[in-house]
Design goal:
The chain is of the alpha+beta class. It has 16 helices and twelve strands. It has three domains: about 130 residues, MutS, DNA mismatch repair protein, domain I (3-Layer(aba) Sandwich); about 70 residues, DNA polymerase, domain 1 (Orthogonal Bundle), CATH 1.10.150; about 150 residues, DNA polymerase, Y-family, little finger domain (Dna Ligase, domain 1), CATH 3.30.1490.
Length: about 400
């Protein structure tokens, strides 16, 4: 059986000591101190505390004995942590092709082709991206990059903190795979380890098991992990399978924050083309389109256009987006990002024929055009091709 090798590049981004970092963010005077967030046990600690032997799940009495007078113990504030998490996820969403949130403090982003966009290696990109998060969100992160999500995540507990790790070939990590236990593979729980104990002890052993033997012994989840470790991009079916609730595409201007209306509309059209290609690929029609702005001060502006009936007419969607844009654009605001969101879905249904032209023929034509544009943009870069009339 043949499998397609992934041509994607993913970054797994994980915040370092997230709860403790949030407390330092709120109270900068705590920087460099042994800060512990606790609730009978330690649930997060700064690296200053970890260097002295504090670990997650350490009992509070033991942590106090280890730290003596060098500690600051704080109760968790999950509302504040959620606010910081939202800022972090919004930043990732605005600066990547796609995001899949894994937990409150970690996510996967698709960074395919971003090396070409920014004209730097993935290693340089990861380092700079980490610094940008530190400077803009004020939270330190570690980043791991590879061609599948599991390959990006598997080193996350080894190379923390403050790390970026890039591996796009097996040669770079072959020795490490021979040393890593199968328990280091995400989602290989204890029951799975029991079933595999006579077949595989290391990650390298697991990767070399015959696919059909693994499928017969354990089933789909184990084979999906096997595929991920062998370069096949398949994990989306495990974590994020479910009903799609919205399609969104965003673009951050970074250092090109602007008040130029034409430039912002051009960026918005790029977002629209990518979102529309996804809409047509999934045979959806929608009732709502949203326009989202964020300004230099990180303030958000969100506007909705509701249609009387479900539609996927490109002209109708684009005309509506233009009306929202023209009505709400403010010349004196300095904008840093734009966002197009399609929501309120249903599968496309056949429409009644008119006397002159079938609406279904129009739909088929739009679908083919959208697929062609998406194919060209996926081959090169996702915002290179659009239709000239869209820019007017």
């Amino acid at each position: 059986m043949k499998f397609s090798v992934s041509n994607k590049v993913y970054a797994h981004i994980d915040c370092n000591s997230f709860f403790a970092s949030c407390e330092v963010l709120r109270e900068p005077s705590l920087a460099g101190k042994c800060v512990c967030v606790w609730n009978e046990i330690i649930i997060a600690a700064t690296y200053e505390a970890k260097k002295l032997g504090i670990k997650t799940w350490t009992p509070i009495w033991e942590a106090k004995a280890i730290l003596g007078e060098r500690w600051t113990f704080l109760s968790p504030d999950h509302i504040w942590y959620s606010e910081v998490s939202k800022m972090f996820m919004d930043f990732l969403r605005e600066n990547s092709m796609e995001i899949q949130i894994f937990s409150i403090d970690e996510a996967f982003i698709d960074i395919t082709w971003l090396d070409k966009l920014y004209k730097k290696s993935y290693s340089e990109f990861a380092h700079d991206f980490k610094e940008r998060i530190k400077n803009e969100i004020w939270i330190s992160v570690s980043i791991w990059v590879s061609n599948t999500r599991i390959r990006a995540k598997i080193f996350s507990e080894i190379n923390k903190p403050f790390w970026e790790f890039i591996w796009l070939t097996d040669i770079e990590v072959e020795d490490i795979f021979m040393k890593l236990s199968i328990s280091d593979i995400p989602f290989i729980w204890r029951k799975l380890q029991e079933k595999l104990k006579y077949l595989a002890k290391t990650v390298d052993d697991y990767r070399k098991l015959p696919f059909w033997q693994l499928k017969e012994l354990i089933g789909k989840n184990a084979t999906d992990l096997w595929l991920e470790l062998n370069w096949v991009d398949t994990l989306k079916r495990i974590w994020w399978e479910g009903e799609m609730k919205s399609i969104s595409r965003t673009r951050s201007f970074n250092r090109e924050m602007t008040t130029d209306k034409d430039k912002i509309w051009f960026k918005l059209i790029s977002n629209f083309e990518m979102a529309y290609s996804e809409l047509m690929k999934n045979n959806f029609e929608i009732r709502s389109i949203w326009l989202y702005f964020r300004d230099k001060q990180m303030r958000k502006y969100l506007y909705e256009w509701k249609f009387e009936e479900y539609t996927n007419s490109k002209k109708m969607l684009l005309d509506s987006l233009k009306k929202i844009f023209d009505h709400h654009f403010t010349e004196w605001i300095i904008y840093r990002s734009t966002w197009v969101v399609f929501s309120n879905f249903q599968k496309t249904t056949p429409k009644q024929l008119s006397l002159f032209q079938s609406n279904n023929e129009i739909y088929d034509k739009n679908k083919k055009i959208a697929e062609s544009i998406a194919d060209i943009n996926n081959r090169f870069w996702k915002s290179m091709i659009t239709i000239w009339s869209n820019l007017k």
